[in-house]
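Reminder: ligand-aware prediction takes two inputs, not one.
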Amino acid sequence: MLFEYINNLEGLTYFENQDFHSAIRLGSRGSVSGPTQVLSLISSIIQNSITIIGFISVLLLVSYELLLLLIISIAPQIFVLIILKRKRFALEAENIEKHRVASYIEELLQNPHSVKEIRIFGLGIFFVNRLMSTIQQLNKAGHDYDLREMFWQSGLALFSSVIAGISFVFIIFQAFWGKITIGDIFLYSSALASFQSSLYSIALPMSTVTQDSLYFRKFIDIKYLAQNSKIIGNHTCSVPHLKTGIEFRDVAFRYTENQDWVLDNFNLFIPSNACLAVTGINGSGKSTIVKLLTRLYDPQKGQILWDGIDIREFEPRELREHMGVIFQDFSRYYLTGQENIGVGNVQSIDSLEAITHAAHKADLHRLFITLPNGYQTMLSKYIESGNRGTELSGGQWQKVALARMFMRNADFFILDEPTSSLDIKTEHEMYANFVKLMGNASSLLISHRIAALKIANFIAVLENGKVIEYGSHSYLIGLKGKYAELHDLQSAVPFNQL
Ligand SMILES: Nc1ncnc2c1ncn2[C@@H]1O[C@H](COP(=O)(O)OP(=O)(O)OP(=O)(O)O)[C@@H](O)[C@H]1O
Ligand SMILES: [Mg+2]
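Here is what comes back for the chain with adenosine-5'-triphosphate:
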């Protein structure tokens, strides 16, 4: 359920917030232990109530004052136990970041993808030391708390013994005064001990439930967050087939308030039935455009218009159904070849026909039929080793990402550096067939490579959050500006051949 709620959260903003991740970790514990602890408390109350009622009637025979003393004496114990459990939760919540760091380092130290670099750079000891120091800090905090808890628990035990002692003396005196027989002493003192331990058996799970309810609260917080986190907009329009194009109008965007604007007064038109290429130096905001188009973030100022309609008028999920996207940092899932392509359109994940069609387009079919289990081969040895799993090369993974995009019957394709790892021949073939591959869809192609930029109908050059040049390849070459400079640099004779 927790992950169903998390899945309902639109956009990426929550996912870049450490408090949110801490809440997930605490809530995840609460979702498991909260309900079971409540059940165990109920069962403990039922079991012990029978004992307690039995002994109340026995102890009433001695004195109701004694009974009252025993009942009242449990109150401070419950109070102290609850405070201790609350403090235990506060300690966990305070240290949750460190727990997350420890889990992250543990994962780094065992995942083959990170172990590669850890071995080459000799980082093992560096990370192990960091893990050790994190764990030591956690242990220290836990140890200090344990000492405090032990002190209070001993206090409680002492208090309980004093009450038991007083009660026992009282019973002895009752026998001394002849109110009960000597033989009754044994009956009443064992009733006394059982009564006290039954009360404690209820008090302890009661305090545990208090602690677990705090964890559970985090689970509920995430539930409410998911229910109330409707992404801004009216969501009243259904998304029309793209006819004219997409326009960024006076858009300003920054990831956080204390950061510089990534896009500022940004204007760009992406025409339909055409390919617009975007280029610009690293960090100029190209991938940010993709995240805004797909509504992973919303701009702080200005509008993005789909055929003249603000995209905030659309339901984000419906808008995304009209798009096929390859992110620059696309995901490499620990799934089979078929599934890794099929996730591009999960309704067709079982359709081998649709998947092989997409694989053909991405030049992947020839590779997949040679794998030990063909399309059913697991693309990770982390999950399945031996003959059933394999690892792909960087370029092969990029083809998987392309095939994933081709699974979509989209109006608009977004390709962020889609061929940066492809070999020259495959890249050349892909761009030679680009128009055919795109079908009737419009496309936004982000690239640094002249070979890719050349095939686009229009090219936009980004700098300092703005479009500084816009036009066809030949127009921009004629302009002798940034684009022409980039072109000359890429076509220059290598230094060693000068
Ligand atoms: N999630 C984020 N939170 C905060 N800042 C970010 C985030 N993602 C990107 N940035 C910053 O926004 C700026 C633009 O990043 P973006 O990824 O759009 O650049 P880019 O043009 O795609 O670069 P590249 O050519 O390297 O892919 C950079 O300065 C980057 O540091
Ligand atoms: Mg980028």
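The pocket of adenosine-5'-triphosphate (ligand 1) is lined by residues 16, 255, 262, 280, 282-288, 328 (CB under 6 Å). Residues 124-176 form the longest helix (53 residues). We will return to this case in the review session.
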